[in-house]
Write a structure and sequence with these properties.
By secondary structure, this protein is α/β, with parallel strands linked by helices. The protein is built from nine helices and eight strands. Helix 2 links the parallel strand 2 and strand 3. Helix 1 packs parallel to helix 2 (about 45-60), helix 3 runs parallel beside helix 4 (about 100-120) and helix 8 (about 205-225) packs across helix 9 (about 255-275). It starts with a strand and ends in a 7-residue tail after the last helix.
């Protein structure tokens, strides 16, 4: 049976507060496990750090999304070596290059795909600002050239980058659907036209929350249709600290991001449940 795992970003656990001290890694993982998350998302680039994290994950029976930020094909090799030693559900690769020509991007993407296939580890290319995939149209052009490119969809960046007018047009919905149809995992945050991360518990932000829930529902249905009967989808709650999080005059978060992460987890699970037995027409 197809299943979905919901991860919590360790970056999102950072408080960056003058009032509240940071939790230790041990405390964060204890809190994440107790809340019912299935795993975490964190950097998978420092072998010593990853070994420490992996030991704690095993203790709590949690899985991991491993993040990396390569600039070259070879930059991915040590990440995959660490992943072979300390298992991950998948690698989230942010291509840390800003190339203007498709032809310069294709060898990198093909090389990263090849290394992942050789290692037997899922390597997914995240859609993210200030990366190769910063622009929606450029990323769609990449998909035209590499239709089998496996993305990790964080569409909050595209909404802000393109500043879609409200209500979202059918044309823009279709563009996002093309990204979702090539996404094999998802990062969860809600954006508006102007902010990459808004407070999902504010009633006046509900239209944006519903927009993203609708996009994720489309993406989940698309994934179900493309995937095997026993495959597992990963959805990461990634409500980051400031400056992603909106703050007040005192520099503190305007909401409790942990409580909003729990809300996002519940919303994502409800969307997943609604997609059971569905296929895209």
């Amino acid at each position: 049976m197809q299943n979905m795992l919901i991860f919590q970003s360790l970056w999102a656990m950072e408080r960056r507060s003058a009032k509240y001290p940071e939790l230790t890694l041990e405390e964060n993982l204890e809190k994440i496990a107790a809340a019912g998350f299935d795993g975490i998302s964190t950097h998978w680039t420092d072998r010593d750090v990853v070994r420490r994290v992996a030991g704690l994950l095993k203790h709590h029976d949690l899985q991991a999304e491993g993040q990396c930020f390569p600039k070259t094909i070879d930059d991915l090799k040590p990440v995959l070596e660490i992943a072979a030693e300390c298992n991950v559900h998948h690698i989230c690769l942010q291509p840390d290059v800003r190339l203007r020509r498709l032809e310069d991007c294709l060898p990198l993407l093909e090389g990263w795909q090849r290394l992942g296939e050789e290692a037997g580890i899922d390597v997914l290319i995240e859609t993210h600002r200030d990366r190769m995939t910063t622009d929606l149209f450029f990323t769609l052009d990449l998909l035209d050239r590499l239709p089998d490119l496996r993305l990790l969809g964080d569409v909050s960046h595209f909404l802000v980058g393109r500043e879609f007018a409200w209500p979202i047009s059918d044309e823009n919905h279709a563009l996002i659907h093309r990204i979702l149809d090539s996404s094999w995992a998802f990062h969860g945050r809600v954006a508006s036209r102007e902010q990459v991360q808004i407070e999902i518990s504010f009633p006046h932000h509900r239209p944006w929350v519903d927009l993203f829930l609708g996009w994720w529902e489309y993406g989940f249905r698309s994934w179900r249709k493309r995937s095997g009967s026993d495959d597992v989808l990963a959805f990461t709650c990634e409500l980051g600290p400031k400056p992603y999080a909106i703050t007040g005059r005192d520099g503190e978060d305007s909401t409790d991001r942990w409580e909003e992460s729990l809300l996002l987890m519940r919303e994502a699970r409800a969307v997943w449940a609604r997609t059971a037995g569905w296929q895209i027409n």
